[in-house]
Amino acid sequence: MVDFRNVKYDPAYTLKEISAAITRDPQNATHYFKRAQYYQEAKNNKNALKDIEQAIKLDEERGEYHFRKAQILRDMSNYPAALTAAIQAEDLNYRSTDLDILLGELYLFSKKYEFALQYLNDAQEETPENEYIYFYRGLAYAHTSDSVAAIRNFKSAIRRAPDLIEAYNQLIKIYLNQKEDVQAWSYLRAGLKQDSTNAYLWYYAGEHYNNREQADSAYFSYKNAVKYDSLLYLAHHKLALLAFDKNNYSEAAAEMEKAMKFLKKLPQAHMILGESYEKLGELDKALPHYQWVYTREPQNIKAMWGVRRTMYRLYKLKRDSLRLDEKKKRDSLLAIFRQGQS
Question: Where are the alpha helices (DSSP H) in 144-280?
Answer without folding.
Answer: 147-160, 165-177, 181-194, 199-211, 215-228, 233-245, 249-263, 267-279
